[in-house]
Amino acid sequence: MALLQTSELVKKFGGLTAVNKLDLQVKEGEICGLIGPNGSGKTTVLNVITGIYKDDGGKVLFDGKEIQGLMPHQVCEMGIARTFQNIRILGSQTVYDNVRLGLHIRTKADLFNIIFDTKKVKNENEAIREEIEGALDLVGLLEYKNELTKNLPYGKQKVLEIARAIVAKPKLLLLDEPAAGLNTAESENLMDIVRNISKRNVSILLIEHEMAFVAGLTNKVYVINYGKKIAEGTYNEIKSNPGVIEAYLGTRGDN
Ligand SMILES: Nc1ncnc2c1ncn2[C@@H]1O[C@H](COP(=O)(O)OP(=O)(O)OP(=O)(O)O)[C@@H](O)[C@H]1O
Ligand SMILES: [Mg+2]
User: Fold this and answer.
1) How far from 96 is each of 81, 89, 93, 112, 196, CA to CA, in Å?
2) What is the extent of the structural domain holding 128?
3) Residue 76 CA to ligand 2 centre (angstroms)
4) Which of 56, 83, 177, 231 is the most buried (most CB within 10 A)?
5) Quick one: 26 and 74 in the same domain?
6) Hey, whose CA ends up nearest to atom 31 of ligand 1?
7) Which of the listed residues 161, 182, 210 is the one where a domain comes to its end?
8) What's the pLDDT tens digit per position in 67-109?
9) Dihedral angle computed from the Cα positions of residues 77, 78, 84 and 90, in that order, rounded to the nearest 10 degrees
10) Ligand 1: which residues within 6 Å by Cβ?
11) Where does a domain end: 100, 126, 161?
12) How far, in Å, CA of 254 to CA of 147, rounded?
């Protein structure tokens, strides 16, 4: 059984069908790619899966359970974490505190324990620190933990978002253009980071325009255009698919 499965998923914005009967699967342990030209519906797919938008048809199954209609924080509690196409971090907070935000779903220590600062809370605080530092280490930011986030270069801000996503220990990580704006060295470093996350039993679905990144990381790629799946397979299989080449060159047969 797939960890994530969408079946005939539909999302419309007024008269525009942004996601059109999309079937995709991410199996446990996989790194899957979701690619397609600008405006083809990739981000919308993630937004529907994570409960930001309500679907207009179809199903989303995660770990065998239907997750449509759940609120974003509930989807997160189920074990799906994500990053955003445009960085969403708090510049005036430290690197450490930004990652801590990703833990909010797991730190509902009850008020009594917080007020009386019992041993339980001290242990929990220690465990939280270890998790945050572990996530920062995984993305190579541990030495920057006390820096203000706004002082980090763009490439480090991008991997900080990944640290914030994985600190919640998701089963599935959704990445929306993680390599966008990175130079070649940063992009290669990010590939190693993604592989290391994958080794920790996190399945991954990533959107990316950077094809070297997709080729180097994914076991399976879904290609969409106008919200519809036009190809699926390994990167080598889809890269020579005429429909995919046509979609990327923008030469539609009907115009
Ligand atoms: N909130 C919204 N309201 C109306 N239309 C939207 C909304 N979000 C996305 N769209 C439209 O849905 C289509 C798919 O957009 P989406 O952002 O999912 O594309 P994308 O494949 O992620 O593109 P890109 O590669 O440029 O990030 C586009 O035509 C877009 O204009
Ligand atoms: Mg997008």
Assistant:
1) 18, 12, 8, 26, 20
2) 91-161
3) 20
4) 83
5) yes
6) 39
7) 161
8) 988 999 899 989 999 999 887 888 789 999 999 988 865 545 5
9) 10
10) 13, 16, 18, 36, 38-44, 85
11) 161
12) 53
